[in-house]
Amino acid sequence: MSSRYDLNVQCFAKRKAENIFTEKNDPRLLYVSRVRPNHNAHPRILHSHKDHIEVLLICDGQSDFLIHNRKYPLKSGDMVIYNSEIVHDDLTGPDTEISYYCVAIGELHLPDLRENALVRDDAGFVFPTGRHYEAMKMLCEMMFESLSREETGAETFCRSLMQALLIKALTVIDENQGRLEERMEDEDILGIRIKGYIDEHYMEPLNLQIIGDGLNVSPYYVSHVFKKMSGYSPIQYLLRRRLGEAQTLLISTDRSISEIAGMVGFETQNYFNAQFTKHVGIPPKKYRENYVVRTHTVGKRRECLNR
Q1: Which residues is 236 bridged to in the sheet?
Q2: Is the pLDDT of residue 53 over 70?
Q3: Which residue, of 140, 175, 210, is where some domain finishes?
Q4: What are the helix (H) ranges across the chain?
Q5: Does the model's pTM come out above 0.85?
Q6: What residue numbers bound the domain in which 107 lies?
Q7: What is the domain-level CATH number for residue 285?
Q8: Other Cβ atoms within 10 Å of 220 Cβ, number
Q9: What is the pLDDT of residues 181-221, one digit of tens each?
Q10: Taking the CA of residue 102 as centre, how many other CA atoms within 13 Å lie in the half-sphere pointing to its CB?
Q11: How many domains does the chain have?
Protein backbone atom coordinates (compact mmCIF):
# COMPACT_ATOMS: atom_id res chain seq x y z
CA MET A 1 0.00 0.00 0.00
CA SER A 2 1.44 3.34 -1.00
CA SER A 3 1.73 6.16 1.49
CA ARG A 4 1.73 9.90 1.06
CA TYR A 5 5.46 9.81 1.75
CA ASP A 6 6.29 7.67 -1.31
CA LEU A 7 9.01 9.26 -3.41
CA ASN A 8 8.74 9.85 -7.11
CA VAL A 9 11.12 7.76 -9.18
CA GLN A 10 13.05 8.54 -12.30
CA CYS A 11 12.55 6.62 -15.54
CA PHE A 12 15.77 6.25 -17.49
CA ALA A 13 16.06 5.81 -21.24
CA LYS A 14 17.66 2.38 -21.54
CA ARG A 15 18.78 2.69 -25.12
CA LYS A 16 19.93 5.44 -27.40
CA ALA A 17 16.99 6.80 -29.33
CA GLU A 18 16.71 5.61 -32.92
CA ASN A 19 16.01 8.41 -35.39
CA ILE A 20 14.00 7.07 -38.32
CA PHE A 21 13.44 10.54 -39.79
CA THR A 22 16.73 11.06 -41.57
CA GLU A 23 18.02 11.53 -45.10
CA LYS A 24 15.32 10.55 -47.60
CA ASN A 25 12.64 9.97 -44.98
CA ASP A 26 11.73 13.49 -43.91
CA PRO A 27 7.90 13.47 -43.71
CA ARG A 28 5.98 16.72 -43.98
CA LEU A 29 2.81 17.60 -42.09
CA LEU A 30 0.17 18.86 -44.52
CA TYR A 31 -2.94 19.41 -42.43
CA VAL A 32 -4.84 18.30 -39.33
CA SER A 33 -8.62 18.03 -39.31
CA ARG A 34 -11.05 17.51 -36.46
CA VAL A 35 -14.29 15.98 -37.70
CA ARG A 36 -17.30 16.25 -35.42
CA PRO A 37 -20.61 14.37 -35.76
CA ASN A 38 -22.41 17.41 -37.20
CA HIS A 39 -20.01 17.39 -40.19
CA ASN A 40 -21.27 13.95 -41.28
CA ALA A 41 -24.34 15.38 -43.00
CA HIS A 42 -22.22 15.99 -46.13
CA PRO A 43 -19.94 12.93 -46.41
CA ARG A 44 -16.63 12.79 -48.25
CA ILE A 45 -17.32 10.21 -50.94
CA LEU A 46 -14.99 7.69 -52.66
CA HIS A 47 -11.57 9.22 -53.27
CA SER A 48 -7.85 8.64 -52.83
CA HIS A 49 -4.75 10.77 -52.24
CA LYS A 50 -1.99 10.66 -54.82
CA ASP A 51 0.87 12.12 -52.80
CA HIS A 52 0.21 11.69 -49.07
CA ILE A 53 -1.18 9.43 -46.38
CA GLU A 54 -3.88 10.12 -43.81
CA VAL A 55 -3.90 8.82 -40.25
CA LEU A 56 -7.35 8.82 -38.62
CA LEU A 57 -7.98 8.39 -34.91
CA ILE A 58 -11.60 7.56 -34.10
CA CYS A 59 -12.59 9.35 -30.89
CA ASP A 60 -16.32 8.75 -30.47
CA GLY A 61 -19.14 6.87 -32.14
CA GLN A 62 -19.06 4.22 -34.82
CA SER A 63 -19.66 3.85 -38.54
CA ASP A 64 -18.77 1.72 -41.55
CA PHE A 65 -16.04 2.93 -43.90
CA LEU A 66 -15.20 1.34 -47.25
CA ILE A 67 -11.42 1.09 -47.55
CA HIS A 68 -9.86 -0.38 -50.69
CA ASN A 69 -11.88 -3.56 -51.23
CA ARG A 70 -14.01 -4.05 -48.10
CA LYS A 71 -16.11 -2.39 -45.44
CA TYR A 72 -14.66 -1.88 -41.98
CA PRO A 73 -16.80 -1.19 -38.89
CA LEU A 74 -14.95 1.63 -37.12
CA LYS A 75 -15.36 2.50 -33.45
CA SER A 76 -13.79 4.67 -30.78
CA GLY A 77 -10.12 3.87 -30.27
CA ASP A 78 -9.46 2.62 -33.81
CA MET A 79 -6.62 3.99 -35.91
CA VAL A 80 -7.19 4.06 -39.66
CA ILE A 81 -4.35 4.29 -42.20
CA TYR A 82 -5.04 5.57 -45.71
CA ASN A 83 -1.90 4.95 -47.75
CA SER A 84 -1.58 7.03 -50.91
CA GLU A 85 -3.66 5.76 -53.85
CA ILE A 86 -5.92 3.70 -51.55
CA VAL A 87 -9.54 4.50 -52.40
CA HIS A 88 -11.77 5.02 -49.37
CA ASP A 89 -15.36 6.01 -48.77
CA ASP A 90 -16.82 7.78 -45.76
CA LEU A 91 -20.17 6.02 -45.29
CA THR A 92 -21.39 8.45 -42.64
CA GLY A 93 -24.64 10.35 -42.97
CA PRO A 94 -26.88 12.78 -41.10
CA ASP A 95 -27.84 10.08 -38.58
CA THR A 96 -24.26 8.93 -37.95
CA GLU A 97 -22.54 9.88 -34.71
CA ILE A 98 -18.79 9.63 -35.19
CA SER A 99 -15.91 12.02 -34.55
CA TYR A 100 -12.24 11.68 -35.36
CA TYR A 101 -8.96 13.46 -36.01
CA CYS A 102 -7.34 13.23 -39.43
CA VAL A 103 -3.62 13.96 -39.92
CA ALA A 104 -2.25 14.20 -43.48
CA ILE A 105 1.44 13.52 -44.07
CA GLY A 106 3.47 13.68 -47.28
CA GLU A 107 7.01 12.77 -48.39
CA LEU A 108 7.01 9.62 -46.25
CA HIS A 109 9.70 7.08 -47.18
CA LEU A 110 9.87 4.16 -44.76
CA PRO A 111 12.18 1.19 -45.31
CA ASP A 112 10.64 -1.74 -47.23
CA LEU A 113 7.48 0.22 -48.03
CA ARG A 114 6.46 2.13 -51.13
CA GLU A 115 6.50 5.92 -51.05
CA ASN A 116 3.77 7.47 -48.90
CA ALA A 117 2.76 4.24 -47.20
CA LEU A 118 2.73 3.58 -43.46
CA VAL A 119 1.77 -0.08 -43.69
CA ARG A 120 1.79 -2.78 -46.36
CA ASP A 121 -1.27 -2.52 -48.59
CA ASP A 122 -2.09 -6.17 -47.84
CA ALA A 123 -1.78 -5.84 -44.05
CA GLY A 124 -5.12 -4.16 -43.37
CA PHE A 125 -5.94 -0.54 -42.67
CA VAL A 126 -7.70 -0.52 -39.27
CA PHE A 127 -5.87 -1.09 -36.00
CA PRO A 128 -7.15 -0.84 -32.39
CA THR A 129 -4.86 1.53 -30.48
CA GLY A 130 -5.51 0.09 -27.02
CA ARG A 131 -3.20 1.57 -24.38
CA HIS A 132 -1.79 4.06 -26.91
CA TYR A 133 -5.10 5.82 -27.55
CA GLU A 134 -4.84 8.63 -24.98
CA ALA A 135 -1.31 9.57 -26.03
CA MET A 136 -2.27 9.60 -29.72
CA LYS A 137 -5.37 11.66 -29.04
CA MET A 138 -3.33 14.18 -27.06
CA LEU A 139 -0.83 14.53 -29.94
CA CYS A 140 -3.67 15.15 -32.42
CA GLU A 141 -5.33 17.66 -30.11
CA MET A 142 -2.10 19.61 -29.60
CA MET A 143 -1.42 19.77 -33.34
CA PHE A 144 -4.93 20.91 -34.14
CA GLU A 145 -5.06 23.54 -31.40
CA SER A 146 -1.61 24.93 -32.19
CA LEU A 147 -2.36 25.27 -35.91
CA SER A 148 -5.89 26.59 -35.43
CA ARG A 149 -4.60 29.35 -33.11
CA GLU A 150 -1.75 30.18 -35.51
CA GLU A 151 0.70 30.14 -32.61
CA THR A 152 4.24 31.34 -33.17
CA GLY A 153 6.36 28.35 -34.16
CA ALA A 154 3.28 26.17 -34.67
CA GLU A 155 4.69 24.46 -37.78
CA THR A 156 7.96 23.52 -36.05
CA PHE A 157 6.15 22.38 -32.92
CA CYS A 158 3.66 20.31 -34.88
CA ARG A 159 6.36 18.72 -37.02
CA SER A 160 7.80 17.14 -33.87
CA LEU A 161 4.34 16.06 -32.71
CA MET A 162 3.67 14.54 -36.14
CA GLN A 163 6.86 12.49 -35.87
CA ALA A 164 5.80 11.30 -32.41
CA LEU A 165 2.40 10.32 -33.81
CA LEU A 166 4.04 8.32 -36.61
CA ILE A 167 6.19 6.44 -34.11
CA LYS A 168 3.10 5.64 -32.02
CA ALA A 169 1.26 4.54 -35.16
CA LEU A 170 4.12 2.21 -36.14
CA THR A 171 4.08 0.77 -32.61
CA VAL A 172 0.34 0.09 -32.87
CA ILE A 173 0.80 -1.55 -36.27
CA ASP A 174 3.64 -3.70 -34.94
CA GLU A 175 1.58 -4.84 -31.94
CA ASN A 176 -1.25 -5.86 -34.26
CA GLN A 177 0.87 -7.80 -36.74
CA GLY A 178 -0.06 -11.09 -35.06
CA ARG A 179 -3.66 -10.79 -36.15
CA LEU A 180 -4.82 -13.46 -38.56
CA GLU A 181 -5.43 -12.04 -42.01
CA GLU A 182 -8.41 -13.31 -43.94
CA ARG A 183 -7.54 -15.75 -46.68
CA MET A 184 -8.41 -14.32 -50.06
CA GLU A 185 -10.72 -16.43 -52.20
CA ASP A 186 -10.82 -16.39 -56.00
CA GLU A 187 -13.90 -14.14 -55.93
CA ASP A 188 -12.06 -11.65 -53.70
CA ILE A 189 -9.24 -11.47 -56.23
CA LEU A 190 -11.71 -10.91 -59.06
CA GLY A 191 -13.48 -8.24 -56.99
CA ILE A 192 -10.20 -6.37 -56.61
CA ARG A 193 -9.62 -6.64 -60.37
CA ILE A 194 -13.08 -5.18 -61.02
CA LYS A 195 -12.41 -2.35 -58.58
CA GLY A 196 -9.05 -1.65 -60.22
CA TYR A 197 -10.65 -1.53 -63.65
CA ILE A 198 -13.29 0.98 -62.51
CA ASP A 199 -10.71 3.09 -60.66
CA GLU A 200 -8.61 3.26 -63.82
CA HIS A 201 -11.46 4.00 -66.24
CA TYR A 202 -14.07 5.84 -64.14
CA MET A 203 -13.73 9.04 -66.24
CA GLU A 204 -14.72 7.10 -69.36
CA PRO A 205 -18.17 5.85 -70.44
CA LEU A 206 -18.66 2.59 -68.52
CA ASN A 207 -21.38 0.00 -68.02
CA LEU A 208 -21.48 -3.62 -66.90
CA GLN A 209 -20.94 -4.92 -70.43
CA ILE A 210 -17.83 -2.77 -70.96
CA ILE A 211 -16.40 -3.79 -67.58
CA GLY A 212 -17.13 -7.46 -68.26
CA ASP A 213 -15.55 -7.31 -71.73
CA GLY A 214 -12.49 -5.59 -70.28
CA LEU A 215 -11.99 -8.40 -67.76
CA ASN A 216 -13.29 -11.30 -69.89
CA VAL A 217 -16.05 -11.98 -67.34
CA SER A 218 -19.81 -12.03 -67.81
CA PRO A 219 -21.58 -8.79 -66.75
CA TYR A 220 -23.80 -10.76 -64.35
CA TYR A 221 -20.79 -12.29 -62.60
CA VAL A 222 -19.09 -8.88 -62.43
CA SER A 223 -22.11 -7.48 -60.61
CA HIS A 224 -22.48 -10.48 -58.28
CA VAL A 225 -18.83 -10.65 -57.22
CA PHE A 226 -18.32 -6.92 -56.76
CA LYS A 227 -21.45 -6.37 -54.68
CA LYS A 228 -20.56 -9.33 -52.47
CA MET A 229 -17.12 -7.82 -51.85
CA SER A 230 -17.92 -4.11 -51.42
CA GLY A 231 -21.64 -3.81 -50.73
CA TYR A 232 -22.02 -1.66 -53.86
CA SER A 233 -23.02 -2.66 -57.35
CA PRO A 234 -20.30 -1.77 -59.89
CA ILE A 235 -22.46 1.09 -61.19
CA GLN A 236 -23.07 2.46 -57.68
CA TYR A 237 -19.32 2.33 -57.03
CA LEU A 238 -18.65 4.06 -60.37
CA LEU A 239 -21.05 6.87 -59.47
CA ARG A 240 -19.54 7.39 -56.02
CA ARG A 241 -16.02 7.25 -57.48
CA ARG A 242 -16.89 10.07 -59.87
CA LEU A 243 -18.58 12.13 -57.15
CA GLY A 244 -15.63 11.70 -54.79
CA GLU A 245 -13.19 12.90 -57.42
CA ALA A 246 -15.50 15.82 -58.15
CA GLN A 247 -15.39 16.78 -54.46
CA THR A 248 -11.59 16.78 -54.61
CA LEU A 249 -11.59 19.04 -57.68
CA LEU A 250 -14.17 21.40 -56.13
CA ILE A 251 -12.01 21.71 -53.02
CA SER A 252 -8.58 21.94 -54.61
CA THR A 253 -9.09 23.75 -57.95
CA ASP A 254 -10.86 26.77 -59.41
CA ARG A 255 -12.23 24.82 -62.38
CA SER A 256 -15.86 25.50 -63.31
CA ILE A 257 -18.53 23.06 -62.19
CA SER A 258 -19.39 22.16 -65.77
CA GLU A 259 -15.73 21.43 -66.50
CA ILE A 260 -15.43 19.25 -63.39
CA ALA A 261 -18.59 17.35 -64.33
CA GLY A 262 -17.10 16.46 -67.71
CA MET A 263 -13.69 15.62 -66.27
CA VAL A 264 -15.08 12.94 -63.94
CA GLY A 265 -17.32 11.30 -66.51
CA PHE A 266 -20.75 12.96 -66.35
CA GLU A 267 -22.38 13.68 -69.71
CA THR A 268 -24.32 16.73 -68.52
CA GLN A 269 -23.92 19.24 -65.71
CA ASN A 270 -27.61 18.92 -64.78
CA TYR A 271 -27.25 15.18 -64.12
CA PHE A 272 -24.05 15.83 -62.18
CA ASN A 273 -25.74 18.49 -60.04
CA ALA A 274 -28.67 16.19 -59.30
CA GLN A 275 -26.51 13.21 -58.31
CA PHE A 276 -24.11 15.35 -56.26
CA THR A 277 -26.98 16.90 -54.33
CA LYS A 278 -28.61 13.51 -53.75
CA HIS A 279 -25.48 11.83 -52.38
CA VAL A 280 -23.63 14.72 -50.69
CA GLY A 281 -26.68 16.60 -49.42
CA ILE A 282 -26.00 19.99 -51.02
CA PRO A 283 -25.32 21.20 -54.60
CA PRO A 284 -21.69 21.30 -55.80
CA LYS A 285 -21.59 25.12 -55.82
CA LYS A 286 -22.76 25.27 -52.20
CA TYR A 287 -20.34 22.50 -51.23
CA ARG A 288 -17.43 24.48 -52.65
CA GLU A 289 -18.58 27.70 -50.96
CA ASN A 290 -19.06 26.01 -47.57
CA TYR A 291 -15.70 24.32 -47.72
CA VAL A 292 -13.85 27.50 -48.71
CA VAL A 293 -15.48 29.51 -45.92
CA ARG A 294 -14.80 26.86 -43.28
CA THR A 295 -11.18 26.33 -44.27
CA HIS A 296 -10.15 29.83 -45.33
CA THR A 297 -7.71 30.35 -42.47
CA VAL A 298 -6.62 26.71 -42.53
CA GLY A 299 -5.68 27.22 -46.17
CA LYS A 300 -3.31 30.00 -45.13
CA ARG A 301 -1.71 27.73 -42.57
CA ARG A 302 -1.45 24.94 -45.10
CA GLU A 303 0.55 27.20 -47.40
CA CYS A 304 2.98 27.79 -44.54
CA LEU A 305 3.30 24.07 -43.93
CA ASN A 306 4.04 23.39 -47.57
CA ARG A 307 6.96 25.77 -47.87
Answers
A1: none
A2: yes
A3: 175
A4: 133-148, 154-175, 186-201, 208-215, 219-230, 234-252, 257-263, 269-280, 284-294, 296-305
A5: no
A6: 28-175
A7: 1.10.10.60
A8: 10
A9: 555 566 678 988 999 999 999 999 999 999 999 999 999 99
A10: 16
A11: 2
